Amino acid sequence: MTKKNIDDNKKPVKESKKKINELEELKNEKKELEEKYKRAFADYQNLVKRSADEKQQFAKFANEMLLAEIIPVYDNLKTSLEFSDEKNHDAWLEGVKYVKKQFQDVLTNGGVEEIKTKGEKFNPEIMEAIEGKGDKVKRELKPGYKLNGKLIISAKVEIE
Q: Residues 51, 55, 59, CA angle at the centre, nearest 5°?
């Protein structure tokens, strides 16, 4: 065999070794990417779980501030009922009016607004006609409320 033939035979071996090295590098890169994917997927699953836990905790305690404002009003109402008698009617009535004002303040501070109806044009989007026919509110039967501009209870009205 001549030197040229030997060199020609070495060429495919060199190319094969080069291809084997490239293949090994690709296998290592694939393995590395699979590990990164597994870590990223595990992080995502942990994030989903943590978000669900936080959402549950938020829902559990979302009304805490509102309740902290309502409980003293409830306590005052209980106290006023303890002191109700016919001899003290005027003082008792003033106490109940004060409790009503406390409730109104708590609701207003919480973003609740009462819907104005008396003398207004009937609006079926925020009012429910219980009696009468027409397009003007004659009398409010039960008030309606909005929370931060969103209807939560429609007003019950009599129309004329």
A: 175
Region 112-160: CATH code: 2.30.22.10
Q: CB-hemisphere CA count at 13 Å for 144?
A: 24
Do residues 142 and 158 lie in contact, with contact meaning Cβ atoms separated by under 8 Å? no
Count of CB atoms situated within 10 Å of the CB of 137? 23
Q: What is the pLDDT of residues 3-36, one digit of tens each?
A: 555 556 667 777 888 889 999 999 999 999 999 9
Place of tokens 């978000």: 51
Q: Over 60-93, what HEC string results? A: HHCCHHHHHHHHHHHHHHHHHHHCCCCCCHHHHH
- Give the up-direction half-sphere exposure of residue 116: CA atoms within 13 A in the CB hemisphere: 3
- Domain locations in the chain? 1-61, 63-110, 112-160
Find tokens 């943590």 and name the residue. 50
pTM above 0.85, yes or no: no
